[in-house]
Amino acid sequence: MKLFLHLCIFFSILFISLTSSYSCTLNDKNALLQIKKSLNNPPLLSSWNPQTDCCTSWTGVSCTNRHVTELTISSGKISGQIPAQIGDLPYLRTLDFSYLTHLTGNIPRTITKLQNLEILRLKETNLSGPIPGYISELKSVTFLDLSFNQFTGPIPGSLSQMPKLEAIQINDNKLTGSIPNSFGSFVGNVPNLYLFNNKLSGNIPESLSKYDFNAVDLSGNEFTGDGSMLFGRNKTTIRVNISRNKFNFELSKIKFARTIVSLDLSENHIYGKFPRRELTKLRLQHFNVSHNFLCGPIPQGGVLQTFEPSVYSHNICLCGAPLKPC
Ligand SMILES: *[C@@H]1O[C@H](CO)[C@@H](O)[C@H](O)[C@H]1NC(C)=O
Ligand SMILES: *[C@@H]1O[C@H](CO)[C@@H](O)[C@H](O)[C@H]1NC(C)=O
Ligand SMILES: *[C@@H]1O[C@H](CO)[C@@H](O)[C@H](O)[C@H]1NC(C)=O
Ligand SMILES: *[C@@H]1O[C@H](CO)[C@@H](O)[C@H](O)[C@H]1NC(C)=O
Question: Does the keyword Repeat apply (predicted)?
Fold first, then answer.
């Protein structure tokens, strides 16, 4: 009898811990079931069964203290739009919908209710329309990845109002217009900018010169004019790629940070001579100035002679190793 009582207590405790400490709150569970319904009950979410615990057995769902804090749905056949009920998961810290080529429409406004969101990754889906400015109401987001979608229109200037942003990854869309002037006044961190492979154009705001970007990739756009504000002796920039644009500035005027390891200036309208010593002091691992309007001797020294001749090719009259002697 005593053993039976002990067993009863043991199983009650087990039952309580299984049902309460691990299962998600009713609010979160209902929101997820609504999301599943809005997406027309896709097979990918068949594990989202109302009879089971959404924290431990539902695909892509993770919890902290019974609240859903992470939702990751990736690589599958999900058709339709991001359900508005996504805003009903108030403890969400990571929202990751990636490689869902049949996910269409835009980002619903209800997303702004997710004030704990730190990572917003909607990568390689088929979202379209303009990137909504209200994304900037997500004040906890550190990492914004909307790459490989069909977004059109300008970059919303309000992104500069996100105080914790560390990276803006909006490459491989169909964005137009220039870099917003507001990017000259980020309220918080200066985020890494990955804007490559869009249809962005115009001049880069001069005000960016005061920023110390870690990594900037503007390649594969239609930017024009000066690019010197991206550089600067006192910066700690590591990677800059402005390849495949129409930048038009004098190379010898640029002061490079000693920290740069990757520098791709190829396929632009950059002119003038090489700075005499500037580049020989860098520990470059990737370097490319091909397809520009450069002329004169390639400085000898540092790592500049370790690159293959093609990184200097298609200029006006560059000479010296690894090209032909001057
Ligand atoms: C993506 O959306 C476009 C229209 O915006 C459509 O033409 C295309 O077929 C969609 N791609 C997929 C894989 O669903
Ligand atoms: C720079 O961007 C171009 C085009 O997007 C890419 O092909 C190239 O590999 C990049 N360069 C480096 C050094 O990453
Ligand atoms: C770079 O830093 C040095 C020493 O800290 C300072 O003297 C110089 O004015 C700075 N240059 C620029 C362009 O800010
Ligand atoms: C340098 O850039 C040119 C033009 O973008 C490209 O064709 C070439 O492959 C690049 N070279 C290297 C070594 O990356």
Answer: yes
